[in-house]
Design brief:
The complex is a heterodimer of chains A (198) and B (192). Chain A is mostly helical and 198 residues long. Chain A is 67% helix and 2% strand. Chain A has 8 helices and 2 strands. A two-stranded antiparallel sheet of chain A has the order 1-2. In chain A, strand 1 and strand 2 form a beta hairpin. Chain B is mostly helical and 192 residues long. Chain B has a domain of 131 residues. Chain B is globular. The chains are: A mainly alpha (198), B mainly alpha (192). The interface between A and B is large, with 42 and 40 residues.
């Protein structure tokens, strides 16, 4: 049981895909202008990650190793299309503000990385745990960065005002530059605390 | 005139790396040395132009007439992957010198989100054939420029005295933030 739990929890801190492995930075930087966008993106990635690693794990013995990357890519692209069409149909507003970053999940290195490094070698049960943990870790990092930027940049969180009226929003935090600065500092903090523990 | 606008906007105003966050992985990974930054930049620009030509033709001449636009992500990523593979084989056969220079960067490009991003933006902005090529050229040039500036700064950064925790990716991201801030100065240049 402990071993299985480890597969789940490693994605949060020790091997957090965004903050430690520095994978999937493109969506992490682009969609974190608000907490809502960050959460939607995180959920979309969890869905694609879980479904595609599940399929990869099921068919791992059927796919010849020379064409495995191409096969993984097609599987991922299919689930991304499903997620994109779902968002377009049910949440057109959010889908619009996420723009091309939903289809860009196809080339997100986290997903291909987990398919290649974990799902193609492990049992189905472990794969699900691993993907869920990684997806949660990704969402967690995005949510923190998104909330941080939204609070400082517009004084709200999930569109609810939290700072007093007199607060002058730091516009830079919701601009591209703020994304880089925010993530850079988060990575720095993460390094600081991880190294301190050792 | 419109073409010039598209070019400048793709290269500096809406720089792929610094304002669309596309191609961050190579931006952080390959920007340690100036020479490899140049190689990567050229390879990306080259593949971008090829991609824009092929995906434009596929999307407008095949997917749209047959009403299969929902297949675009699957098709685009397959086209890009096979294109990169073909370019690699072709360059290896015809020009060993160029292969030496670009070789190791080519396989990395398939998973570079800037390429797929280019194809998606092309569809989103509804560019015609010529505009797409100009857009690809501008985007590739902008990517190379950002990579070169970053590599130049990071070569000097190696000898700087930094807090232990910020070394590596942390400081690179913060510098990218400062670069993005300075690139914002271009946004008054033109407005489309």
């Amino acid at each position: 049981m402990d071993k299985n739990f480890f597969e789940f929890k490693k994605g949060f801190l020790q091997q957090n895909p965004v903050l430690v492995q520095l994978l999937g930075l493109c969506p992490a930087l682009a969609v974190t202008t608000s907490a809502v966008n960050a959460l939607t993106m995180g959920l979309a990635v969890i869905f694609v990650l879980l479904s595609s690693t599940f399929i990869v794990s099921v068919i791992k013995r059927l796919v010849p190793s020379q064409v495995r990357i191409a096969a993984f890519t097609v599987i991922i692209a299919t689930f991304v299309t499903i997620a994109d069409l779902f968002l377009k149909a049910w949440f057109p507003q959010i889908s619009k503000s996420l723009g091309p970053y939903v289809p860009l999940i196809v080339v997100n290195c986290i997903i291909l990385g987990r398919c290649e490094a974990f799902a193609s070698k492990s049992s189905i049960f472990k794969t699900i745990l691993d993907s869920f943990g990684m997806g949660m870790g990704f969402t967690f990092a995005l949510l923190i960065l998104g909330s941080f930027r939204e609070i400082l940049g517009s004084g709200t969180i999930f569109n609810i005002a939290v700072l007093p009226q007199s607060y002058q929003p730091m516009l830079i935090m919701i601009l591209p530059a703020g994304a880089f600065l925010g993530l850079g500092m988060m990575v720095g903090f993460m390094n600081f605390f991880v190294n301190k523990k050792k | 005139m419109k073409l010039l606008f598209i070019f400048i906007s793709a290269a500096v105003v809406n720089n792929f790396v610094l304002s669309y966050f596309l191609g961050i992985c190579p931006f952080l990974g390959v920007s340690r040395k100036l020479s490899s930054a140049i190689g990567m930049g050229c390879a990306v620009t080259f593949v971008m132009v090829l991609t824009s030509v092929t995906t434009w033709l596929l999307y407008h001449k095949l997917l749209l007439p047959f009403e299969m636009a929902y297949l675009q992500y699957v098709i685009f990523i397959l086209v890009i992957a096979s294109l990169v593979q073909m370019v690699e084989m072709f360059v290896k056969k015809t020009s060993p010198a160029l292969y030496q220079a670009l070789g190791i960067y080519l396989p990395l490009i398939t998973t570079n989100c800037a390429i797929l991003g280019l194809a998606l933006f092309m569809v989103l902005k509804n560019y015609n054939f010529i505009q797409s090529i100009i857009f690809a050229l501008g985007a590739g040039l902008g990517f190379t420029m950002a990579l070169l500036i970053m590599a130049g700064i990071r070569e000097d950064l190696d000898i700087a005295d930094l807090p232990e925790a910020l070394k590596g990716a942390g400081i690179a991201l913060i510098i990218a933030g400062l670069l993005a801030l300075s690139f914002m100065g271009f946004s008054g240049l033109l407005s489309i």
